[in-house]
């Protein structure tokens, strides 16, 4: 289901009460029966949905679909998957379609007729090509984030700390979520331990511990949590 009448705007959340500065990020979120976005992902309220994406085919289901129909004849002939997206569904409503569907998000093993996720390759900076059963000699699990140092296969847990959102020349700049790049042995002097989520509020380095109860990931710290958010993790 697509929202053909959807109109995007700028997020209305005030981030500075000194000058009534608003977030300004692209606002895709509002309640299901609205056609204009009001808040961005960080500041959306409980039960708001992303109006700018395709949703499950089931009427009034607001879940983003992860399953799709595919060309069954092509699969039987070649062993390869070709999605046609004629019907898209969330996991909950697959059986009601009465159609053969597969997960259209995950990466499948390149071995014909294998429907197992691909997680092995011989380049630690690449995506997976084969599953564990069909991996070639010398391949390893690339879903593990390895240290960027050459020939090092220790797990990376260190990087420079940067805020996800910051103010540069009076403009809000959204950075990519920083990811660990080096292990304990090869970390740089400015690197810090990064095995925790960072608050998504502007200029904040705090630990994100709060989310709405229907969300999977935490978004905001104690200082920036929104009404009705719940705390996740250790209460100390």
The span between the termini is 43 Å
Strand percentage, roughly? 15-25%
Biggest sheet: strands side by side, in what order?
8-7-9
Nearest-integer average pLDDT = 81
* Element-level helix/strand string: EEEEEEEHEEEEEEEEEE
Multimeric state: single chain
Structural class from helices and strands?
A: mainly beta
If you compute it from the alpha carbons, what radius of gyration comes out, rounded to the nearest whole angstrom? 22 Å
Overall outline: flat
- What can be said about the biggest beta sheet? 3 strands, antiparallel
Structure summary, number of beta strands = 17
Tally of helical runs = 1
Low-confidence parts: none
Quick rundown:
This protein has 236 residues and is mostly beta strands.
Strands, helices and their partners?
Elements: E1 9-10, E2 14-16, E3 21-22, E4 26-27, E5 29-30, E6 49-50, E7 67-70, H1 72-78, E8 83-89, E9 101-103, E10 120-121, E11 140-141, E12 158-159, E13 165-168, E14 171-174, E15 192-193, E16 210-211, E17 230-231
Antiparallel strand pairs: 1-4, 2-3, 5-6, 7-8, 7-9, 10-11, 12-15, 13-14, 16-17
């Amino acid at each position: 289901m697509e929202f053909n009448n959807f109109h995007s705007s700028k997020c209305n959340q005030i981030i500075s009460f000194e000058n009534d500065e608003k977030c300004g990020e692209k606002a895709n979120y509002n309640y299901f029966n609205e056609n204009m976005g009001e808040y961005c992902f960080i500041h959306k309220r409980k039960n708001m949905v992303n109006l700018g994406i395709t949703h499950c085919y089931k009427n009034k289901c607001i879940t983003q679909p992860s399953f799709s129909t595919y060309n069954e004849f092509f699969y039987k002939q070649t062993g390869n998957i070709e999605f046609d997206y004629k019907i898209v569904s969330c996991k909950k409503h697959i059986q009601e379609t009465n159609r053969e569907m597969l997960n259209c998000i995950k990466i499948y093993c390149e071995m014909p007729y294998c429907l197992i996720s691909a997680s092995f390759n011989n380049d630690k900076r690449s995506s997976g090509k084969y599953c564990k059963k069909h991996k070639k000699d010398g391949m390893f699990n690339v879903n593990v984030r390895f240290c960027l140092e050459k020939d090092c296969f220790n797990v990376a847990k260190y990087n420079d700390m940067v805020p996800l959102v910051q103010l540069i020349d009076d403009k809000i700049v959204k950075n990519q979520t920083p990811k660990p790049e080096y292990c304990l042995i090869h970390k740089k002097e400015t690197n810090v331990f990064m095995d925790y989520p960072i608050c998504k509020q502007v200029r904040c380095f705090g630990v994100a511990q709060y989310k709405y109860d229907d969300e999977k990931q935490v978004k905001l710290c104690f200082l920036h949590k929104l009404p009705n958010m719940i705390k996740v993790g250790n209460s100390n």
